[in-house]
Amino acid sequence: MAGGSGGALAVDAEVVIVGGGIAGLATALALRRVGVGGVLVLERHSELRATGAALTVYPKSQRLDRAPRARRRAQAHLPLRRLRNVRPADRKALLEALAEELPPGTIRFSSKLVSINTEKAKSSPEIAVLRLDDGTVIRAKVLIGCDGVHSVVARWLGLSEPVTSGRSAVRGLAVYPDGHGLKKEVWQFLSEGLRAAMVPINNTEVYWFLVNNTVAAEKEARTDPVKILREVTDNLGRHMPPDYLDVVRHSSHDSLSWVPLLYRSPWAILTGPTARGPVTVAGDAFHPMTPDLAQGGGSALEDAVVLARAMSRAATPAEGVAAYVSERRGRAALLVAGA
């Protein structure tokens, strides 16, 4: 690390991960576990932020669970038994558990990426050159975009923009300090243009969601928790069973979200530029999908493991990135198409 021209900071890193969400932190931890050092995670917000209230993890994705502290933290937010081999988890708890496993200083907060370039010296592989909004310049041997649906890295690679599905999802986490008394099982409700579900995460918290055809009220309500709850209970979910509506009304306001459901074309995932030299993407930046198969979070964990394994076996960063993309393209496209 050294000072740059005009007082700007210049930083050298082995691996830079853009995005401090589940995909980014899981990738950082997976790389650390295969012996890759010098990992830096750039998070544009001033603290960890969990988008959505919970996620469901299927057996294939549960293999990531190898870190003792992460496992202990997660178990406090999991039901006493698996629900048909599906494990629901509190997103915030998982995010904090992953962060705790990383060395101090790995996550650089308030770091917004504004530009990406590459450069190549005569006797060394191509590297990524990143510029942040504060003027900091970072040179990285590997760049991994884990920066979500509207990924700056994916756009730089030339991947097609995600498209709308015409549907939206409301999500929330209900909190019952004295216990909710619900069985540890998934409830799902279907009707024309609507799909809803709820599932206990532990004895005091219940995750719920409602997927609907996009409505005009969404634009005004999506930033106001009170309006979101009113729209769900009085309009979208008014025909839902009383137990479901009771869960909705117990929602923590800071857990509520209402967002349009976007996805990237499976064909774009199969054939698009998902890598360029030592640069690639993972999680929603790679394969945004609708939640109908409940595989978004789990597939991000799978990306992390496959990418770390590929990097540990490759002779050069570019070869590791290429091997990762080759292995993940098919499964990612299949999940998006199935959802």
From TrEMBL:
<comment type="similarity">
    <text>Belongs to the 3-hydroxybenzoate 6-hydroxylase family.</text>
</comment>
<dbReference type="InterPro" id="IPR044560">
    <property type="entry name" value="MOase"/>
</dbReference>
<dbReference type="InterPro" id="IPR036188">
    <property type="entry name" value="FAD/NAD-bd_sf"/>
</dbReference>
<dbReference type="Pfam" id="PF13450">
    <property type="entry name" value="NAD_binding_8"/>
</dbReference>
<dbReference type="Pfam" id="PF01494">
    <property type="entry name" value="FAD_binding_3"/>
</dbReference>
<keyword id="KW-0503">Monooxygenase</keyword>
<dbReference type="InterPro" id="IPR002938">
    <property type="entry name" value="FAD-bd"/>
</dbReference>
<feature type="domain" description="FAD-binding">
    <location>
        <begin position="89"/>
        <end position="337"/>
    </location>
</feature>
<dbReference type="GO" id="GO:0071949">
    <property type="term" value="F:FAD binding"/>
</dbReference>
<protein>
    <recommendedName>
        <fullName>FAD-binding domain-containing protein</fullName>
    </recommendedName>
</protein>
<keyword id="KW-0560">Oxidoreductase</keyword>
<dbReference type="GO" id="GO:0004497">
    <property type="term" value="F:monooxygenase activity"/>
</dbReference>
